[in-house]
Amino acid sequence: MKISEGVEWAAHACALLAAVPEGGALSAGAIAAFNDLPKAYMAKHLQALAKAGVVVSVRGAQGGYRLARPPAEISLWDVRRAIEGPGPDFHCANIRLKGPCVAPKPSSGPCAIAHAFWEAERAYQAALGSMTIADVVVQAAREQDAEGLSRIAAWLRAAL
Q1: Across the chain, which distance is largest between two alpha carbons, in Å?
Q2: End-to-end distance of the chain based on CA atoms, in angstroms?
Q3: 5-87+132-159 architecture in CATH?
């Protein structure tokens, strides 16, 4: 399973937006600059997050993006689904029904391989569904020292 970099970017954007005070918003350019990412791609991912109801777009001079719900109500699965869509990662083509050695009466249902991949996807989805943006922010804060947290707070004040 390969997760696109857009999912990572979107998750980091949501974690940053979790630190925005109520009523505030950050522009796509500011979010991109915070993570040293291309503004156009960040804007594209923010639009996908907005379409999925993870963030809201705010118009005006102080406009930009903010979370649509509290960080504790937005899971990493919500972010992944917004960027890559709701469909499964594994698609069974049932290739065992092709080729020269197909059994005379093969089952037309999915095989053990498909079931294994689908079970892994359910576990993956459950794991991301249980981890929220609030959880990520708490962990990220633990990884910063006081000076780092102070720099982030100062950056946010300047960006708002």
Answers
A1: 71
A2: 37
A3: Orthogonal Bundle (1.10)
Q: φ and ψ at 68, to 5 degrees?
A: -80, -20
- Euclidean distance between CA atoms 55 and 69, whole angstroms: 8
Burial class (CB in 10 A: 0-12, 13-18, 19+), 57: middle
CA 70 to chain centre: 15
Cβ partners under 8 Å of residue 99, min gap 6: none
> Which amino acid is present at 7?
V
CA 159 vs CA 22, 79, 107, 119: distances in Å:
14, 23, 60, 43
Contact 54, 74 (CB under 8 A): yes
Q: What integer is the mean pLDDT of 51-67?
A: 93
The span from the CA of 160 to the CA of 64, in Å, is 10
pTM of the full structure: 0.88
* Predicted local distance difference test score (pLDDT) of residue 101: 79
The residues pairing with 132 across neighbouring beta strands, listed in sequence order, are 75
DSSP 52: T
Q: Among residues of the chain, what percentage have pLDDT more than 70? A: 98
Q: Which amino acid does the sequence have at 32?
A: A
